[in-house]
Amino acid sequence: MQRLLCIMRDAVQTAGGSLPPDKADRWRKVYRKCLGRAEKACPPPDENQRQGQRGRLKRTRARNLLERLRDYETDVLRFLDDPAIPFTNNQGERDIRRLKVQQKISGCFRSFEGARIFCRVRSYLSTARKQNLSASAVLTQLFTGRVPAFMLASEGN
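Given the sequence above, the corresponding structure tokens read:
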């Protein structure tokens, strides 16, 4: 599955960011075929092994992943059709990670306003990093009253 998804990513990049509907549908069929092979290799748990009456039977991590890939196919493959959707969400996770570390260290924010300010500063620095600017350079510009170029460009949108 990992190789298939990487091949699909490369096909999307080669096509310029999104695939025509017929090619995207062909990739979806290949994806489903791969899920079918995985279903045979990792079947659901046997109901005969149930010891109690309640709850779900324990599934392996592989089975849980397979079920998520099957149930959320539309979301997993959204990058095929929509050029605005990245192949991975790593950047979004990186942006949130700093906030979660701050919460873990401090336990919480003392006020909603403090959390809002923290998020605003992190967003500013993250945007600067995405524009290949150093944090110290954009902070210096900010505190000297100069507006960085990336902020001027976003105001026009």
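The chain has a mean pLDDT of 83. Try to locate this feature in the token string yourself.
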